[in-house]
Design goal:
Layout (H helix, E strand, L loop, with lengths): L4 E3 L8 H16 L7 E4 L1 H8 L3 H10 L7 H16 L5 H14 L5 E7 L15 E5 L2 H13 L4 H9 L9 E7 L3 E10 L6 E10 L3 H4 L6 E6 L5 E5 L5 E5 L5 E5 L12 H18 L3 E8 L4 E8 L19 E4 H4 L8 H18 L13 E4 L2 E5 L1 H5 L1 H14 L1 H10 L13 H13 L2 H10 L1 H19 L7 H16 L2 H23 L7 H5 L7 H17 L2 H9 L2 H9 L5 H14 L19 H11 L8 H24 L3 H17 L5 H26 L14 H8 L5 H15 L7 E3 L5 H4 L11 E2 L1 E4 L2 E8 L13 E4 L15 E4 L7 H9 L3 E3 L4 H4 L5 E5 L4 E4 L1
Parallel strand pairs: 20-21, 21-22, 22-23
Antiparallel strand pairs: 1-2, 2-5, 3-4, 3-5, 6-7, 6-12, 7-8, 8-9, 10-11, 12-13, 14-16, 14-17, 15-16, 18-25, 19-23, 20-24, 24-25
Helix pairs in contact: 3-4, 4-6, 4-7, 11-18, 13-14, 16-17, 16-19, 17-18, 17-19, 17-28, 18-28, 18-29, 19-27, 19-28, 21-24, 21-25, 23-25, 26-27
Length: 892
């Protein structure tokens, strides 16, 4: 039988399933020659053997894994039963004997720390730190065995059980090993991160230190000394002395005592600069050994010898855009394009592959040499399965900096502030250089793509521009059609060519119409002059025609009206949850008005989805659950409420009246000026609604390409190279080609899904990140809360509304009562059906011309966007006031 107790020297990082995360790390560090106090580990085999016949624990496991245990009270009750069952289980004599032998090998009556080491602990994707128990200064075999038993029981603390439920970790698969480690009689101890956990900056040691045992620092019981210094040397970057009011000390014979320090003690650092340098050097060794930033626990004994008592990965850092590769010096800045497009979640591998091909196609059009879109000289990067672009050259160029700041100002105002702060950093300061070469390059590209004449043509003949938009869309659909009789590899070839050569050119083809509309709006603002009051031009953009997203939302509203007029249909939609309705629709079992109405809607808009720019995500035609949830929201709209189509018609009338008022105001300063303003505002209303077309046609293309890839996935699944057809979206196109030629891709898909699920749980996504991992927005957060606790963002749609806040992180299945204020991280067209019943809008992302802002204006919904941490600072159910014109949100 394999030994149930292993010395640290017999353990390495590969043994997590046997010894748990903590013991595996300690064994790995010991074998690497780092100064780790000696010890041993009871393997998970010992735990499993002890609990194998505990019937009460088996009953609890059955209940926990049976589902329906999200209630905290119920979880706590089950956890308590499990703890009691484990604590009362007898320990076999041979396990007791092995523990006694290993303990006495450490010395006579040696003090030890007894720590839990879970098999799902300290993994790269989840930190279990603090979930199980630790016992310090344990002396003697009986005391060690008692502490081991209590550690086993702590696998079932309330917090540990709740954590596993939250992170979808199966209780039955988790077991507990126990570490027994020689205690360091610490004069000073603490923790050290080898990357800054707040700012994200890599190769920066952040040290917290306090007298006595490290438990005081780890548990947060003390305000420690805080130091920041470079991992690779250099001067101390930050020194902040804490009051260190208490210290935890070992007691002779076992146990610990907490002692208060004098309140008037002189603030003196508990470690010297030399010891900090020694700590940084140790941190560098640990990080270099693991190849990733680490969270370390350390101690200095009475002789000032430095010991490493633990190391684990820092799980909260956002991945570097330069990955794979070392952290840079922070002299490159990357902007999150995915977040700017309203997409908080990660992009699937197939979605990223599609962007690579489209990027390559755009580079071909612009005459830029790139290798595979995101490689070679391209400035695009992937980090955390999101797209970033290197904006460093633009920051340093006088014309590029000005253009980028203005663009971010309307697209993503918070990013504009971050860029402005970066401009103060010497590494990103504008450098003297001629703007002529850049202007020439832009001019060449513009003329090559015939953008100026297309803009002028749209201004002169807007109806023709609108018709040409539809013609481009028809050409895209025709170009995406798969040739009859194509083989699997030929179909894959076609997908690659279509994305690069058909989809990519649609952007410059469709952009001039909307550009002409917004240029006209700018011309009107210039002609009207400085007397123009805030919000007057904004009203002109309400109720815009030719906006495909608005048309879609209103079509869905009209479908709800037809359903409401039929009692049987209304009852069917109101009485069943959305997932059940979707299943019944796909089986053709809903009442005719619902079945045929949804079929007609999906026939026109079924290619759309939430997070629709990701090719890897299902379309509404694949899963219409979200749409049935929206229909149910619409049916709840009371008879006294203003119908969305009526509200939209009022917005149109109000906008047209605003145009007449502005023309009249300009006419009073001269007839010619009045006519010019009238012309400009007419063109703005005729053309600005086309702004959705480029992205819409991209989504149309995604809707046509996706079934082709699904068919390839089905072929691979039939051959046993994928588990399901849908797994194809966790591959890229090169992977699919390997699969078609015989490669088994199932293990690769499993790893990709795990990576994707980890990123899906991430809540804090940086707008901008530097090449050393620094998140500039985290360095300065002064704008998060304004005077009197008001949240400040960017005005997006004027008006004031007070209502109940509904915080929505995912619109699928969201329940939004009419008049509630939607609080969201960001939005894309898949969210906009919710706007028709929302009383107001608050978004963490976005600027005055971001998608959510534009749609809110068109519907006349008061909106504030670019509000940092809105979904954290505003609680679901809070009563808030949205002041759209001021850009403020107030809790009432």
């Amino acid at each position: 039988m394999d030994s149930l107790v292993l010395d640290f020297g017999a353990i390495d990082a590969s043994m997590v399933p046997v010894v748990g995360g903590k013991a595996a790390n300690l064994g790995e560090l010991t074998r690497a020659g780092l100064p780790v106090p000696g010890g041993f580990c009871l393997t998970v085999g010992a735990y499993r053997r002890v609990v194998a016949d505990v019937a009460a624990l088996g009953a609890v496991l059955d209940q926990l894994e049976g589902g329906g245990n999200a209630d905290p009270g119920e979880l706590a009750t089950l956890a308590g039963k499990a703890r009691e069952a484990v604590a009362g289980a007898p320990v076999p004599a041979d396990i007791e004997a092995e523990v006694a032998r290993s303990y006495t090998a450490l010395g006579t009556a040696v003090p030890v720390a007894v720590r839990s080491s879970a098999t799902a602990e300290d993994l790269p994707f989840a930190s279990f730190a603090g979930q199980q128990d630790t016992y310090l200064n344990v002396v003697g075999v009986p005391a060690v065995l008692d502490a081991v038993r209590r550690c086993w029981a702590s696998l079932w603390t309330d917090r540990a059980v709740a954590y596993r439920v939250t992170n979808h970790i199966a209780h039955r698969e988790v077991a507990l090993a126990v570490v027994v480690q020689r205690m360091v009689n610490s004069r000073v101890s603490g923790v050290m991160f080898t990357a800054n956990p707040v700012t994200g900056r890599r190769r920066e040691a952040v040290v917290d230190a306090s007298p006595g045992l490290g438990e005081a620092v780890v548990s947060g019981a003390v305000n420690p000394d805080h130091f920041v210094l470079g991992l690779d040397g250099g001067p101390l970057r930050e020194r902040r002395l804490g009051d260190k009011r208490i210290e935890i000390l070992s007691v002779a014979g076992g146990g610990t005592v907490t002692r208060e320090r004098p309140a008037d003690a002189e603030p003196v650092a508990c470690v010297t600069d030399g010891q900090l340098a020694e700590l940084a050097a140790l941190g560098r060794q640990v990080e270099d050994h693991y190849g990733s930033p680490q969270d370390c626990e350390w101690a200095l004994d009475e002789s000032a010898t430095l010991w490493l008592t633990q190391a684990r990965p820092i799980t909260t850092l956002y991945p570097l855009p330069t990955y794979p590769g070392p952290a840079g010096d922070g002299s490159a800045a990357y902007f999150n394009m995915t977040l700017a497009q309203g997409l908080v979640r990660p992009i699937t591998p197939m979605g990223l592959a599609a962007f690579r091909l489209i990027g390559s196609g755009l580079a071909d059009l612009f005459g830029v040499p790139v290798a595979d879109g995101l490689a070679g000289p391209s400035r695009a990067r992937v980090a955390g399965q999101r797209l970033f672009v290197d904006i460093t050259p633009a920051l340093r160029h006088p014309l590029g900096h000005a253009a980028m700041f203005k663009m971010f100002g309307v697209m993503e105002a918070r990013a504009a502030e971050v860029v402005a702060e970066l401009g103060k950093d010497p590494r990103f300061a504008v450098r003297k250089q001629s703007v002529v070469p850049l202007l020439r390059a832009v001019g060449r590209v513009a003329w090559r793509l015939r953008i100026p004449p297309r803009v002028l043509h749209a201004l002169v003949r807007p109806a023709v521009a609108q018709r040409q938009t539809r013609q481009v869309a028809e050409r895209v659909r025709a170009g995406l059609a798969v040739p009859a009789g194509a083989s699997a590899e030929q179909r894959l070839d076609h997908v690659e060519r279509a994305l690069r050569q058909v989809v990519a050119p649609t952007f410059p083809s469709l952009a001039p119409g909307a550009a002409a509309g917004f240029l006209s709006l700018g011309l009107a603002a210039r002609l009207l002059g400085p007397d123009l009051r805030g919000g007057e031009l904004e009203k002109v953009l309400r109720g815009l025609p030719h906006n495909v997203t608005t048309e879609m939302d209103l079509e869905l509203w009209r479908l709800a009206g037809r359903i409401k007029a039929d009692p049987a249909s209304a009852a069917a939609v109101e009485s069943a949850p959305a997932p059940q309705l979707a299943e019944r629709y796909l089986r053709g079992e809903l009442p005719p008005p619902v079945q045929s109405g949804m079929a007609a809607f999906l026939g026109r808009y079924g290619h759309r989805a939430v997070a629709e720019i990701d090719l890897g995500l299902p379309r509404w035609s694949d899963d219409p659950t979200h749409l049935f949830g929206i229909l149910a929201n619409y049916l709840r709209l009371g008879d006294g409420s203003v119908a969305p189509d009526t509200q939209f018609a009022r917005a149109v009338a109000g906008a047209e009246q605003q145009v007449r008022d502005l023309v009249a105001a300009a006419g009073r300063r001269g007839r010619l000026r009045g006519r010019a303003v009238g012309f400009a505002l007419d063109r703005a209303r005729a053309l600005a609604g086309l702004r959705e077309e480029p992205k819409y046609q991209l989504v149309v293309a995604m809707g046509q390409v996706r079934p082709q890839l699904t068919a390839l996935g089905a072929e691979l699944a039939a051959a046993g190279r994928l588990a399901t057809a849908g797994d194809v979206f966790f591959l890229d196109l090169a992977d699919v080609r390997r699969g078609l030629r015989g490669a088994d891709l199932r293990e690769l898909v499993a790893r990709r899904r795990e990576d994707y699920d980890r990123e899906l749980r991430r809540r804090q996504i940086p707008r901008v990140v530097l090449s050393d991992g620094t998140e500039p927005e985290a360095v300065s957060t002064a704008r998060d809360v304004a005077v009197d606790g008001q949240l400040v963002g960017t005005p997006a749609s004027s008006g004031t509304v007070t209502g109940i806040a509904r915080v929505v992180l995912d619109p699928v299945g969201a329940h939004l009562e009419p008049g509630e204020i939607l609080v969201a991280p960001s939005t894309d067209p898949g969210w906009t059906p919710l706007f028709l019943t929302a009383g107001g809008l608050v978004m963490e992302m976005g600027g005055a011309n971001s998608h959510g802002a534009v749609v809110a204006r068109e519907y006349g919904i008061p909106a504030v966007v670019g509000v940092p941490n809105a979904t954290h600072l505003i609680k679901d159910g809070d009563r808030i006031e949205v002041r759209g014109a001021e850009g403020r949100v107030v809790t009432t």
